[in-house]
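Hi F.,

I've been meaning to write this up properly since the lab meeting, where we talked about keeping a consistent format for the predictions we share between groups. The idea is simple: the sequence comes first, exactly as it goes in, then the structure tokens exactly as they come out, then a line or two of notes. No screenshots and no reformatting. I'm using this chain as the first example so we have something concrete to point to.
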Amino acid sequence: MSLENVEAFLKKMQADPALKEKVLASATADDVAQIALKLGFEFSGDELLRMCGKKVGKVTVIKNDLPGEYN
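Output, unedited:
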């Protein structure tokens, strides 16, 4: 169910430029999940990362490796 929420959120994001900017400015997948939750889409950052490499509409989910990030 949550992966369906991820897909629905990504479709909404591609239609809303302001939302897209918020998501692109987010530092982590958990930050994106919090933005989505405020809009009624419930999923975790881990669930979002499971979509990595997949395309939903015009959006492709990618993971950004931040400098200084611990593994």
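Notes:
The longest helix spans residues 2-15.
The first strand starts at residue 55 and ends at 56.

If this format works for you, I'll send the rest the same way.

G.
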